[in-house]
Design a protein that fits this description.
Belongs to the purine/pyrimidine phosphoribosyltransferase family. PyrE subfamily. GO terms for molecular function: magnesium ion binding; orotate phosphoribosyltransferase activity. It catalyses: orotidine 5'-phosphate + diphosphate = orotate + 5-phospho-alpha-D-ribose 1-diphosphate. One of its GO terms (biological process) is 'de novo' UMP biosynthetic process. The chain contains eight helices and eight strands. The protein is of the alpha/beta class. It has a single domain, classed as Rossmann fold (3-Layer(aba) Sandwich), CATH 3.40.50.2020. The protein is globular, with a radius of gyration of 17 Å.
């Protein structure tokens, strides 16, 4: 579906509502309308799937980014000192949470984890402010399938001396990611499961 903005009055709801349940529902609707497709797809994991979720259609959408930032910030433990994720899917997510954190007076820096070390300069895997040794960082992800992408980010952060024990995703495809994180001693949360998304998608399709 092509990009469109809502009217100014409707748009204001995304920014001023204090009801996170309403905001969560609006974000789910946006995922169904912009990000979810059905067909024949090959995922980054190599698995084939009859559906595909292009999370960046939502996380790079102005209202979607705002909702993502507000909702994920609410899920972060109070002692969180930074948010991070593997490029590219997590880039707009960690940025949104970091920006929203200013308005909530929590000031959480965002870190972006490269898939390969930087080829020049510092040769770093991690981009962003240098946090204190042992800082508690939460890894964020858009869509979790097998869980390998976020786990790679966790390992890079831990190797850099940060404390990481939690992964939060926008959508869990329920294909082994949660089990992988549990085996690695990580807590895992997701805003939506694929079941949530598909149920809402069917409702919207039925109204067309």
């Amino acid at each position: 579906m092509s990009y469109s903005t809502e009217t100014s009055n409707q748009s204001d709801i995304w920014a001023i509502t204090t009801d996170l349940t309403t905001l969560r529902q609006k974000l789910l609707d946006l995922f169904c309308r912009l990000a979810y497709q059905e067909g024949d797809f090959v995922l980054s994991s190599g698995q084939r799937s009859f559906y595909y979720i292009n999370g960046k259609q939502v996380t790079l959408h102005p209202q979607g980014a705002l909702a993502v930032g507000r909702l994920l910030l609410h899920l972060l433990p109070i002692d969180t000192q930074g948010v991070a994720g593997l490029t590219l899917g997590a880039d707009p997510i960690v940025s949104a949470v970091s920006v929203v954190s200013v308005y909530e007076n929590r000031l959480l820096p965002a870190l972006i984890i490269r898939k390969e070390a930087k080829g020049h300069g510092t040769m770093a895997y991690i981009e962003g402010p240098t946090l204190p040794a042992g800082a508690k960082v939460v890894v964020l992800e858009d869509v979790v399938t097998t869980g390998q992408s976020a786990l790679k980010a966790v390992e890079r952060l831990q190797a850099a001396g940060y404390t990481v024990n939690r992964v939060i995703s926008l959508i869990d495809r329920l294909q082994g990611g949660a089990e992988l994180y549990k085996s690695a001693g990580l807590q895992f949360d997701a805003l939506f499961s694929i079941q949530d998304l598909q149920e809402e998608y069917r409702k919207i399709a039925g109204k067309r």
